Amino acid sequence: MKPPEHERGAALLTVLMLVAIVAVMAGAALEKLRLSTRLAGNAAAGEQARAYALAAETLALTRIDAMLGPNVKRVTLQGDWSGKPFGMPLPGGGFATARVRDGGNCFNLNSLVSGRAGAYVTDPLMRPQFVRLMRLLDIPAQVGEQIAAGAADWIDSDQDQQAMGAEDGAYLNRETPYRTAGTLMTDPSELRAVVGMTPQIYATLRPWICTLPVAQAAPINVNTLLPEQAPILAMLFPDTMSIAGARQMILQRPPQGVATTDVFFKSAALQGNSNADGERGTAVVSKWFTLDIDVTVGTTVLQEQALMDATTLPARLVSRQWGEPS
The T2SS protein K first SAM-like domain covers which part of the protein (predicted)? Predict the structure, then answer.
């Protein structure tokens, strides 16, 4: 039976519509397949990059053990090991680069407290030192006092607010409420949550602070301090040394380092600087190291920062962080 004149082409239109629908569905399926393949490839490359980073960690730990050795009495910059990249060629054209640095030449934020009977209490000696560091970095004294007190309150176990400090009550009243940690900081970025902190002040402080997993100051190795790290040395003196004076002390250090800290601080005594706090917080060996790793596998780039504890040998890795430093 012949279809009516006005229905001619309806079958063709139906077929074309079905073809269009099938084409759209096929395109969507292919796109999902492409995306899944890409995600799987990225995941595999990421896992491979992490495996190479772990290999770099092992290599770095081996180098630290070899450098320290069982009877080493001083760690210096001789050998050009600090910050010098050592690479690992990888299969397929990839590459991994690692750099080891002294990880104890910084102000340990966790030294603002000391551990007693399973709790953390404020250490009255370290808060003024932190304030001195901030003052040397041109952070106003009153702001520095507030940040130091707030950081100590953030870590300590009690809810007794110090003068210019802040406990839970000060943070719970904010638009986005939160509480203090009541324990050691795990990353310097936690300082950004402390009362008085601003992005600008944090950016100024970040190169000079660290969060070692101990409630005590890390002895600063006078043999591995770089001239640009002079504020860390000047911080140890009770308002008697300038950054320029500290830099001069570092530049006058012999290339082979010093055997004892008192030899290093004799130059400070000759300059008329009191070293009441200075020598007590220093050493001629290094016990903490930081490791920076960059891995490239194809189009995948991985960054890692790690902290290694060499207080006892063999050295061990205590923390790692993936991605850009915070």
Answer: 105-213
Q: Do 156 and 120 form a contact (C-beta atoms < 8 A)?
A: yes
State how far the Cα of 23 lies from the Cα of 63, in Å rounded to an integer: 59
CB burial of 127-163 (b: ≥16 within 10 Å; e: otherwise) equals bbbbbbbbbbbebeeebbbbbbbbbbbbbbbeeebbe
pLDDT digits (tens, 9 = 90+) for 33-57: 777 766 666 677 778 888 889 999 9
- pLDDT tens digits along 94-145: 889 999 999 999 999 999 999 876 799 999 889 999 999 999 999 999 999 9
CB distance 143 to 183 below 8 Å:
no
Instruction: Residue 127: name the closest of 153, 103, 106 by CA.
Output: 153
CA dihedral 201, 202, 203, 208 (to 10 degrees): 110
